[in-house]
Amino acid sequence: MEGLKITGLVVDYGTFKLDSIDLNLKKGCITGLVGRNGCGKSTLIKTIMRQQDAVAGQILYNGKKFAENEVEVLNSIACVFDAPHFNIMAKPKRIYSLYKSIYKKFDSELYEKLMKKFKLPDNLRIGKYSFGMQKKYCLILALCQRPEILILDEPTSGIDPFDRNEVVGLIQEYMLDENNTVLFSTHITEDLDKIADYIVIMENGKITLDEEKNALTGNYRIVQCADINDEMRSNAIGIKKGMFGYTFLTKNKNVTGSGMQVKIPTIEEIFVHMLGENGTYSGGNQNLSYKELQNRGGL
Amino acid sequence: MKSVLHKFIHNDFFNYLRMSAIYSKTSTAVKGKEFAEIIIIIINAIMTAVFVSMLSSGPGGKSGVVETSFEAFIFAIVFGVSLSMGINRRKKPSIMYVAPISFIKRALFAHLSCIIFATFFIVFLFAFSALFNFLFCLIILAATGKWEFFHNFIFSTAGADGSGIMFCIFLFFIIFGSGVSISYIKKFSLRCVFMFAVNIALFALSLILVNVAAEGHGFVANWNVVAVFNELPKSWLWLAGVGAVALGICAVSVIFSIKSEKPKEF
Questions:
Q1: A89, B18, B56, B59: which is deepest, by most CB within 10 A?
Q2: pLDDT in tens, A265-280
Q3: pLDDT per residue over B50-97, tens digit each?
């Protein structure tokens, strides 16, 4: 069952448009959302969180409409936005008491535990926290709400590698409950390699790829070679020429050749090769160049 | 005792109020036509200051001489802030919008928090003004040994009776309620028309009150709105009228807010 179901969502800023977004976030799964800066990831998240009005479309939260179940939906969803959504001049103690009174399921024990774990000082105003500390604090607040749907807008950006690992671990821990759903938007695709179940790629306000991570990485190979012939070129996606030869993505899992290195790609490699300047989008049965798809209005 | 106080402070009502206060503080940015709107808001705030200060200009308008007062600028700021709340509302996310409360509570508490905090602000303003006058008089007395300023202080303080202060608070409600109501008008041009309409109404009110008020002006500038009001014949009747208008405008603002906050499917 879908934790979050988005159908035909259209958001129009005038200068930017989210166009016909269809997205199903399954319960018990982590969906990674990747895309270039300004592709509409944060707009999509704000629209899901009802911080942005849409022109058309529908969003169902655990199968429920927002208008008819406003309080229930808001109780079941938590979000880490790209910036804190509360007064950063307040001290954590004040925000904690506010959250505790607003969210009936707020887990005080977990709050204390995580504050200690991330060594966040209780006597410092949140505005005085570093960017990474603010992110961690927002994540703590979101997790302590015990939501069924957790939306994360770059939760690991600005966090040091050690704490990033801890954050990823926390999200995994949160997913032990199979009723929970996570949408994880990030530029640090390494995190998605570790925990994501599904990968969604956005470009220019549209979803260009929505696939299971294992199927996605399993279906492609990243190839490094000194030279490239016409046959290889015809199957290659996003050919990049470097100092030591060529790198490209291919759907041909049996690709072999002398001096050729073939490996399973990471999400980052898939992302870079698919959306690079000469990248090729290979969704479904199509195998069109990225630019070709754009010209045809497919992207 | 502590737990009773703790319970009182941490009940839902106060929590929502605190959340609303946080919400007001968090919002800052704007989207679309923001520059033009900010300029128009500043023009309107200055106009509000002028018209409120006309209330301070003494009976008969004193040949149109406008006396700018601290109080007038406070009202100008209130109008400017309440108008810009409309711009602020467009800046999300905010804790107010993700907290699990109904849209009616959200609209009501956003208003209540502003009104309660602003009322405290006005009371503080009067208390601060009185204290400032008192200290000023003390310094003059110490420096010159003259008692005339103290006489002036007592006179001005006596001018600010309950009805005068209530008038100021109602005037604040009118300006605040109008500002917030206007901020909910979606069409930019219509929003601008209403901003200026409030000032025309304020101008008319200033003319009426200043002309109806009796002779005998001469208080410290900060108290002038109150002083002019206190000199009105049957000032309590006036107060009731102004109060009714103020509450009506605030009610309109709340209704607009509830309408705007009502969740819609896209």
A1: B56
A2: 888 888 888 876 544 4
A3: 777 776 554 444 433 344 466 677 778 777 777 766 555 555 556 777
Q: Are residues A236 and A187 in the same domain?
A: no
Q: Is A222 left (phi over 0), alpha (psi -120 to 50) or beta?
A: beta
Q: Which residue has the tokens 């804190």?
A: A84
Picking from A158, A189, A211, the residue at the C-terminal end of a domain is: A211
Same structural domain for residues A225 and A184?
no
Are residues A84 and A19 part of one domain? yes
> 């169902």: which residue's tokens?
A60
Q: Say which residue the tokens 């306000």 belong to.
A: A205
Where chain A has pLDDT below 50, the residues are 278-299
Within 10 angstroms of residue A236's Cβ, the number of other Cβ atoms is: 22
Cβ distance A65 to B26 less than 8 Å, yes or no, reads no
Place of tokens 């015990």: A146
CB contact under 8 A, A87 and B26: yes
Min Cα–Cα distance to chain B from A58, Å: 6
One domain, residues A84 and A16: yes
Distance between CA atoms of residues A278 and A291, nearest Å? 8
Q: C-alpha dihedral over B115, B116, B118, B124, to 10 degrees?
A: 160
Number of domains in chain A: 2
